[in-house]
Amino acid sequence: AGPYSNNSPGVHVVDIESHDPEHPDNQRMGRIEWSSKRGEILNIDVAEPFRRLGVANTLFHEAHKAAREQGLLEPVHSADRSDMGDAWAKQAGGEVPERMKVPKTFLGEN
């Protein structure tokens, strides 16, 4: 797993880079960002070639480890998540809050 960083005010970040010979440029495999105030996961992203390989789970667990080591709020699943995020949250573990309902007007529906 990659280093913990706090390069944006109010946001904690953990990156994972590839050390695969097929990706000699150390391509970023994934990143997790979570709120320093609420602990809520703001973003989790896995690069296309590394999806479905457990990278998101590793990010989640490494973020928890980094938070404990740094004395930070540990990341928690957000109620505001995509369909893919919802499926991942349910299998990743931890408490999964009910998903936010998006108003139809926000979706462009009347």
Textual characterization of the structure:
The protein has 110 residues and is α+β, with helices and mostly antiparallel strands. The chain is 24% helix and 24% strand. The chain is built from two helices and four strands; from the N terminus they run ββββαα. The protein has helices spanning 55-70, 83-92; strands at residues 4-8, 11-17, 28-35, 41-46. A four-stranded antiparallel beta sheet has the order 1-2-3-4, covered by helices on one side. Strand 1 and strand 2 (11-17) form a beta hairpin. The chain is globular. The protein starts with a strand and ends in an 18-residue tail after the last helix. The model has no long low-confidence stretch (mean pLDDT 81).
Task: Describe the protein's topology.
Layout: E1 4-8, E2 11-17, E3 28-35, E4 41-46, H1 55-70, H2 83-92
Antiparallel strand pairs: 1-2, 2-3, 3-4
Question: Which short descriptors sum up this protein?
Answer:
110 residues; alpha+beta; 2 helices; 24% helix; 24% strand
